[in-house]
Predict the structure.
Amino acid sequence: MATAKPDNPVHPPPLAIGGEPSPAPFVLGPNDPRVRSLCDILTHTPTTELERVLSSCGIVPVPELVEAVLCHSYSSPASAVQFFRWSGRSLKHTPRAWNLMVDILGRNSLFDAMWDAIRSMKQEGGVLSTATFASAFGSYCAAGKIKEAVMTFEVMDRYGVSQDIVAVNSLLSAICRQDGRTADAADFFDRIKTRVPPDADTFAILFEGWEKEGNTARAKTTFGEMIIRVGWNSNNMSAYDAFLNTLVRASQPQEALKFLTVMKSNNCLPGLRFFSNALEILVKHNDANHALALWDIMVTGSGLVPDLVMFNAMISLLCNNQKIDFAFRFLDEMPFYGAFPDSLTYNAIFECLVRNKRAREAELFFREMKKNEQPLTPSNCAAAIRMFFDQFDPAAALEVWSYLMEELMIPDNESANEVLLGLAEFGRLSFATRYAEDMFNRGIELRFTVIEKLKNSFQKAGKLDCYNRITRKMKQQ
């Protein structure tokens, strides 16, 4: 197929066939002085003067120079035609130069001129190829002329080019690139499949179209036909990926899991691309149950190796769904896959323990984090301090604060306010005084509600003088 191009590109990708880009031939770069000079002539010279200026410019056209100039002439099709004719008087154009000319004309919807070029290529002999027609398919489809693209396929054999599976796939791909036109591609496929047997690429192209359009019903039908016609083959990963992605994106994860189970039994499990995409979608939908089932099918006994990003996504999802025991299981499994937990991993689990008020486990896990040099986030510090005070463990709360100040050196306002609130609630007013003075020295700001709480606590204890000392210190900052 011809690689899709934007309107009037400056430098198009190499022409391609069979659904994959062709290797790029040697092409002179735009900084070559001859290329710059000729492109400047084509851009700024009136067409009536163009041949005279080209003939007097002193530049001798050679094949790679002609190809380079044509690559930069998509926005000037009339000038490109004249340049092509002028250079053709001095050399025999390469097949690539001819194909570029066909592509320039087609991309500018100059279809009559495009066909004139194709007929001239036939007369030249040996320059027409599937790539030529793939370019025509792409141009017609980009212009919304699907019927004309199909008619172009039907006349290929008259020009000595085989209507083989590469040509079929090129046309299917060109149609499927257009929004909402996969049904037209499927109609063409239904008409041609008895004449030209499909291959795995054929179905992969259709699946990508159904995936883009979210058409799960047609995707399932196409999947059934693929199994009948080409069977199970572990090399068809792109087809399996696109089909399963269609189901997952359409919020049918249960259906995707059913097909996955069947695929696995036939040794045709998709690869990490699908696994990663599907996991991302399930995380976005906060669907922990289906994510767990997906993980078990994809990883258990398959040889697939999930990476740190995937583990972190899974652990965060499990923690968000209160499945902390599963999260610990994944944490323990990570080293076996060469994925070592980082601060994101640890903070997700710690935040879940704090949120669920599992104080003893949070305290032990916090110490493990310190041992492994995995820093807590400031928000997790503040939440942990609040939780530890609520769970009657002020020592653990102050341990977190000390860690924050001594090891992370972060003057966190939120954590500081939680420390003073907790100390006031526990009646630890001497501690509150000492910590408050240290906080003021660090430039930490206290909320009004915290100051009022301190005032009430000191007043009840008959220690307003201590409170006044704190406020004087605060005003000095």
Observations:
- Residues 104 and 380 are 59 Å apart (CA to CA).
- The mean pLDDT is 89.
- The beta strands are 16-17, 20-21.
- The chain has 26 helices and two strands.
